[in-house]
Specification:
It is a single chain. This protein is mostly helical. About 90% of the residues lie in helices and about 0% in strands. It is built from 12 helices and no strands. The two termini are about 40 Å apart.
Amino acid sequence: MLKINKQSKEKENLCRRIILFGAAVAMFALYFEKILWILGLIFNICMPFLLGGGLAFIFNIIANNIVRIYRSLTKKKENRIVRFLANIGSIAFVAALLAVFLIGIVPRAGASIQTIVQVMPRTLANIYHWAYYASKPVPFIHSWLKTLNADPGNISAMIENVTSWIVSGNVQDVVGSVYSVVTNTFSILFSVIIAVMFAIIVLFNKKTVVKEADLLMQAYLSKTHYKKSAHVIELIKNTFTSYISGSCTECLILGTLVAFFASVFGFPFAFLDGILVAIGALIPMFGALCAAILAALFTAIENPMQGVYFMIMFLCIQQVEGNFIYPHVMGRSVGLPPIYVMIAVTLGASLAGVLGMIIFIPILSCVHQLVSENAKTRITRKNKLEEEYEDS
């Protein structure tokens, strides 16, 4: 029987891989649109289950914290009843937060926005008159401002026209008909219901899901690949758990501090300002600052100087929070250098908008840690080979 030496076999395998890779690239180039359509269809089908998996992950984080508190208070081990009650408590906690948001926060925020809309015409008119008299040394700008009609009544009419155009004409053109509105609403509600049901099922059957997934990995992967896959999954779980817990806590603290001190110093729309800063803080790096600038503009509508004072107050709060509170809350939950955080935010914004800006940081953190571990392993192996070569 003719035997093929090892070197020829490796070359044959390499040629096969190159041919398969070239064929895959050619197929992808020829049927690019169809492939994207199929991938989009698969993504839309899986979306409720992906959302449900993410929601189950959040439920599990809350349940683990409840179990941790139970252990510290009672000095007892976790059992099935404790885990069941912790799961129920996590769902109740999220439902309570949603109820507080819908019943307590949304109406107050809506009232603040309504007040801003009512005050805006008078504020814009005052700004116009100030600009009109200040622009006298510049005839071109002064003559252009003179042609404008910036009375409060005219500005109110402009705002009403823009609002009616958005509500009636433009949205109707985009949506198309009442039937499409109902269909889209039903589709969203159905997806949300499926996601919530899937999350609850996964939460209460976590051990079964983990056990079956581990069994499949052991069956279809080699020992080496199984250990690597288990390590990657554990790294992803720990990174996302730390990031979600730390980010939510940090946003809540920063928003509460802004709302509290804004109320103490008598700034208007203090509650709305705190909500804006808390939501903006979910976006790393510049999210809280951008939200604070927007809140300062809302405050400046009532009183321009108070908008400046609000920004000074926010910068002081952010410095205190960033130097004393943030390190204890977040710690090294992500372990990502600032330059990589900026890259993650930029990539996330380009690929998936605001959601991408939030989730790309823990994703890039996992990639960064895996690459660092692989690089250290390679360097150690390289140094070992060099030492063996020198000894020989």
